[in-house]
TrEMBL record, chain A:
<dbReference type="Pfam" id="PF00528">
    <property type="entry name" value="BPD_transp_1"/>
</dbReference>
<protein>
    <submittedName>
        <fullName>Oligopeptide ABC transporter permease OppB</fullName>
    </submittedName>
</protein>
<feature type="transmembrane region" description="Helical">
    <location>
        <begin position="100"/>
        <end position="121"/>
    </location>
</feature>
<feature type="transmembrane region" description="Helical">
    <location>
        <begin position="12"/>
        <end position="30"/>
    </location>
</feature>
<keyword id="KW-1133">Transmembrane helix</keyword>
<dbReference type="InterPro" id="IPR000515">
    <property type="entry name" value="MetI-like"/>
</dbReference>
<feature type="transmembrane region" description="Helical">
    <location>
        <begin position="133"/>
        <end position="160"/>
    </location>
</feature>
<dbReference type="Pfam" id="PF19300">
    <property type="entry name" value="BPD_transp_1_N"/>
</dbReference>
<keyword id="KW-0472">Membrane</keyword>
Automatic annotation (TrEMBL), chain B:
<protein>
    <submittedName>
        <fullName>ABC transporter ATP-binding protein</fullName>
    </submittedName>
</protein>
<dbReference type="InterPro" id="IPR003439">
    <property type="entry name" value="ABC_transporter-like_ATP-bd"/>
</dbReference>
<dbReference type="InterPro" id="IPR050388">
    <property type="entry name" value="ABC_Ni/Peptide_Import"/>
</dbReference>
<dbReference type="InterPro" id="IPR027417">
    <property type="entry name" value="P-loop_NTPase"/>
</dbReference>
<keyword id="KW-0813">Transport</keyword>
<keyword id="KW-0472">Membrane</keyword>
<dbReference type="Pfam" id="PF00005">
    <property type="entry name" value="ABC_tran"/>
</dbReference>
<dbReference type="Pfam" id="PF08352">
    <property type="entry name" value="oligo_HPY"/>
</dbReference>
<dbReference type="InterPro" id="IPR017871">
    <property type="entry name" value="ABC_transporter-like_CS"/>
</dbReference>
Length: 305, 321
């Protein structure tokens, strides 16, 4: 198990390197630069700035320097937030983003799984059709549409909830809902399909033949087995929540990492964009690893060797 | 002799978009204490669905009517809770495919002990001890160690032994074995049958053995009932039925068994044609289209299962073959 864990971590290094390389060169391909202004900056000033941030060096040298710093855990200085290291900004915003993400994924799991199981048990009834119809909508509508609509209805028209900010529990409601709605929908559909298949399986028939009460058949035999596809979906789902939170944090002015990312991209804050990309990349790889480990706990056929 | 199971007028049908499929068309039979009843028929003859109805395991679109008395008590149409006191405890069932009939995500220990905990109220430890003893009785080597393993660590034959052990945990009066050896290779088949015979001797339970393998019937059964298109066409002791089949379908089945004492030139007999569509049964006798003896009466009048000799009955208009 430990061996598997270490091997997977080792396997993540090339993936991370490719993420770093691609985003490093792509952000520099984008027109403009961190110090481009509408007002003409004197060439001497620009040259001095470029020298200070080593932007006058050849690209490959900048890349090597960046990798070197990264190996020491340093994401470099932010080009926009003067006197701040990117590492500090990320660590400062991460707790907020983590809170938002965890709330969203937990809610998505609780509601998604319950709806999926319910629909499967009432297959081809109005419950099933309604749940699946609504969840189709949930998957189809992107969160950057859901968020403003929710804000409009519950924030402005009804005035029940704040439209932005962070800190008070009421602030959490709209962003968490906007973030997890499509995940609820995906998980519900996945769980329903998986559950229907398992309920038809021979081993559930065996469980009934053994005279076990319905709740044991469901809990121990059916739901447990039906969870497996959902667990493998958790990796991508977490990735979706994380990338989704970039948009959601911006819309609701939540002081997490996501908001930095959007502003940094617009400002061509190279180090900040890189920092958030690499951090999120590593986080997604790590969450996928956790999902794989959870899968192994549920399925005895999985061996870590 | 006292009957463990008494079935009268059992009908099973499945609702489909194209209309009702009559899987079982009204059957009467009984199984006595300690005896083995062989149930023979080809795929779709309704032989399995009879026992799925009895066990309350029909698919959601299926429904059964009639009467099923287990040890004198009506069990057809019982609610699940009441039925659960019988199935798994006094009446157990094993299935055709041991590869998929055990839950792949739970240890054999969990799957066995839950039966004893449910029906006998044993503690986990007591249940584990009895489960290991039962695995020994079905001749699984190193039963104590094997108990903690998962189904995928067992071969097909071993899994079927686990299924049998699981079914017998509570000492049932009736074991329903639905094609227990069909998915296994021939040598393993023989071993499993041997295990069943030995356990029946020890436990004295009745067995309903559902199969399309007449060889298995000849070896195991005391009495046989032959199913065709959802109905019983012939019933009798295994000796009478094999020596002197009196229904053209039974005769056809026996003739289409390969024999070792025949010369190589002899062609294997077959029954021509196909079984009828259960949604749209023909008038009269459902076997008439494939019957070499069919005459004017057959399409007009449905033959009923009628006794014609001591302990024997058939559903055929012909007085004798």
């Amino acid at each position: 198990m430990l061996n598997f864990f270490l091997r997977r971590l080792g396997g993540a290094i090339p993936t991370l390197f490719i993420i770093i390389a691609i985003s490093f060169f792509m952000i520099r391909l984008a027109p403009g630069g961190p110090f481009a202004r509408e007002r003409q900056v004197p060439p001497e000033v620009l040259a001095a700035l470029n020298r200070q941030y080593h932007l006058d060096e050849p690209l490959w040298q900048q890349f090597l320097r960046y990798i070197g710093d990264l190996l020491q855990g340093d994401f470099g200085p932010s080009f926009k937030y003067k006197d701040f290291r990117v590492t500090d900004l990320i660590l400062q915003g991460f707790p907020t983003s983590l809170q938002l993400g965890l709330l969203a994924i937990s809610l998505a799991l609780i509601i998604g799984l319950s709806l999926g199981i319910w629909a499967a048990l009432r297959q081809n009834t109005i419950v099933d059709y309604t749940t699946m119809g609504v969840s189709m909508l949930g998957i189809a509508v992107p969160n950057f549409v859901v968020a403003p609509v929710l804000t409009l209805i519950f924030g402005l028209m009804l005035g029940w909830l704040p439209v932005g900010g962070w800190g008070h529990p009421a602030n959490y409601v709209l962003p968490v809902i906007a973030l997890c709605l499509s995940q609820i929908a995906s998980i519900a559909r996945l769980m329903r399909a998986s559950m229907i298949e398992v309920l038809r399986s021979n081993y559930v028939r065996t469980a009934h033949a053994k005279g076990l009460p319905e709740r044991i058949v469901l809990r121990r035999h059916a739901i447990r087995a039906a969870l497996l596809p959902v667990v493998s979906f958790l990796g991508p789902a977490i990735a979706n929540i994380i990338t989704g939170s970039v948009v959601i944090e911006q819309i609701f002015s939540i002081p997490g990492i996501g908001r930095y990312f959007v502003q940094a991209s617009l400002n061509r804050d190279y180090t900040m964009v890189m920092g958030v990309t690499v951090f999120y990349g590593a986080l997604i790889i790590f969450c996928n690893l956790l999902a794989d480990l959870a899968y192994g706990l549920l399925d005895p056929k999985v061996r870590y060797d | 002799m006292a009957a463990v199971l008494e079935v009268t007028g059992l009908k099973t049908s499945f609702a489909t978009q194209e209309g009702a499929v009559k899987a079982v068309g009204g059957v009467d039979f009984s199984i006595n204490k300690g005896e083995t009843l062989g149930v023979v028929g080809e795929s779709g003859s309704g032989k399995s669905q009879i026992f799925m109805s009895i066990m309350g395991l029909l698919a959601r679109n299926g429904s059964a009517t009639g009467s099923v008395k287990f040890q004198g008590e009506e069990i057809l149409g019982l609610d699940v809770q009441a039925l659960n006191r019988v199935r798994g405890a006094k009446m157990a069932m094993i299935f055709q495919d041991p590869m998929t009939s055990l839950n792949p995500y739970l240890s054999v220990r969990r799957q066995m002990t839950e039966v004893l905990i449910q029906h006998k109220g044993l503690s986990e430890d007591q249940a584990a001890k009895q489960s290991a003893e039962m695995l020994e009785k079905v001749q699984i080597p190193e039963a104590k160690r094997r108990l903690n393993m998962y189904p995928h660590e067992f071969s097909g034959g071993m899994r079927q032994r686990v299924m049998i052990a699981m079914a017998l945990l509570c000492g049932p009066e009736l074991l329903i074995a639905d094609e227990p050896t069909t998915a296994l290779d021939v040598t393993v088949q023989a071993q499993i049958l041997e295990v069943l015979v030995g356990l029946q001797r020890d436990f004295g339970m009745a067995i309903a053995l559902i199969t399309h393998d007449l060889g298995v019937i000849a070896r195991m059964a005391d009495r046989v009932m032959v199913m065709y298109a959802g109905n019983i066409v012939e019933k009798g002791s295994v000796r009478d039925l094999f020596k002197d089949p009196q229904h053209p379908y039974t005769q056809g089945l026996l003739e289409s068994m390969p024999r070792l004492d025949e010369t190589e030139e002899t062609r294997l007999m077959t029954i021509g044609g196909q079984p009828p569509n259960l949604q749209n049964l023909p008038s009269g006798c459902s076997f008439r289209d494939r019957c070499r003896y069919a005459f004017e009466r057959c399409p007009v009048e449905t033959p009923l299962l009628t006794p014609f000799a001591e302990g024997r009955s058939k559903a055929c208009h012909l007085p004798s073959l």
